[in-house]
Every structure is written in structure tokens, then in C-alpha cells.
Amino acid sequence: MLIKCCSLFLFLCTALTGVYADTFTFRADRMSGSRASGKEITILMGNAEVRSDNILLRAARIEIQGDNNEFIECSGGVWGREEEKDIVFQTDRLHYDRQLKIARLEGNSTLEDRQNSIVAKGRFIEYDDQSEVTVFQIGVRLFKDKMVCRAEYAVYRRIEKLLDLSGFPVVFKEEDEFRADRIRVDLDTDDVTMEGAVSGTIKD
């Protein structure tokens, strides 16, 4: 099946059953696909948008795979939002598993937790919507108010409001600087706990 139109506005709603009991909707300028058994795929191109559960995804190109549309691949100016928690993310490429509710961001990626006033960046981000745990890797930077955290690896536990940093971690709090092998930051109180090769600078 191939559908092409200069300004085609496609909006399909499919009520899914079983583990996918939500309403799954998508739209784009162009669409192509196949529903052959074992090779189910829908390709959306141009202003593509997919909405599933509380997740809204937008990109230049979106591929939907699986007999229950459970796998979504996005590329080209990817933007997404978890609407209930008000978490917004941008990336070069994204893979989303609708069954596990896990999003993997690759390339220049940013995740913003607007409810907790946190912005984090990295080259790889894995966001688990069910456990509300996010893993950041490679060139990680996290910003909250006047605090900046840097590391090569970080785990953000949103429910507990805890951030664990490793891989040459450093935390800057206004004019203070903290370094260690491992650093934990309580993002509710901004308290810093350090382990291994601890060092720092505190200015009056």
C-alpha cells in the first residue's frame, strides 16, 4: 500500500485490545506500509506524529512495526512528551517499546523534567516510564537551578528524586565544586554525598 499526496493529512485511530488497551493514533504527510504477517510495518514521512497512552512523538520519519504496533522508530528532529508527567525530550533517533513503555534516545539528546525543574543531556538516554528511572550515558550534563552535574554515566530516580553519578563525576553548586569516584545528589534538598577519591572546593 502506498499513499502519496502533497498535503495529505492522515489521521487514523485504532482501538487496541489486550495489553494495548489505549487508543493509538498517527498522522503524516505521506504513508507507506505492509501488513504481511510477520512483516507488519507502517512508515510515516513528513510532519509525522504518533500518540500512544500518554506519549506524544513527532519526527520527520516514523516507522511503526509489529502486529500490535508495539515498536516505534523515529528519526530526524525527534521531539516527544510524556504528557501526564510533563517530561519533554528531543533527540536524533528514538526507539519506543509500547509494551515495556521504554524509550531509548540516541545522538544529541535532551530530557526535561518540567515538574522538577531538571534538564539533562547525553549521547544516550533510556527512559523507563513505568519505573520512572532514567539512565544517561556519554557526556552527561544535568542542570537544576544553580547546580550543574557532569559525568559519563548517571541514573536519575525520579520518584526518589535521586541522581547517581559515576565516570569522572563533578558537581558545581554556585561557586562550590565537588569531585569523587561516585557522587549521589538528592535533587529535593541539593545535598551531595561522595565516595572514593573525594575532593572539592568551597568558597565563602
Characterization of the model:
By secondary structure, the protein is mainly β. It has two domains: 1-100, Lipopolysaccharide (LPS) transport protein A like domain (lipopolysaccharide transport protein A fold, Sandwich), CATH 2.60.450.10; 131-204, Lipopolysaccharide (LPS) transport protein A like domain (lipopolysaccharide transport protein A fold, Sandwich), CATH 2.60.450. 0% of the residues lie in helices and 66% in strands. It has strands at 2-3, 12-15, 23-27, 30-34, 41-52, 55-65, 71-82, 87-97, 102-113, 118-128, 133-144, 147-157, 162-166, 170-173, 176-179, 182-186, 191-195, 199-201. A hairpin with a 4-residue loop joins strand 12 and strand 13. The protein is elongated and about 65 Å long. The termini are far apart. The model is unreliable at 1-21 (pLDDT under 50).
Architecture (CATH level 2) name of the largest domain: Sandwich
User: Tell me, what's the shape?
Assistant: elongated
Regarding CATH, which class of the largest domain?
A: Mainly Beta
Q: What value does the Rg take, in angstroms?
A: 20 Å
**What is the CATH superfamily classification of the largest domain?**
Lipopolysaccharide (LPS) transport protein A like domain
What is the topology?
Blueprint: E1 2-3, E2 12-15, E3 23-27, E4 30-34, E5 41-52, E6 55-65, E7 71-82, E8 87-97, E9 102-113, E10 118-128, E11 133-144, E12 147-157, E13 162-166, E14 170-173, E15 176-179, E16 182-186, E17 191-195, E18 199-201
Antiparallel strand pairs: 1-4, 2-3, 3-5, 4-5, 5-6, 6-7, 7-8, 8-9, 9-10, 10-11, 11-12, 12-13, 12-14, 13-16, 14-15, 15-18, 16-17
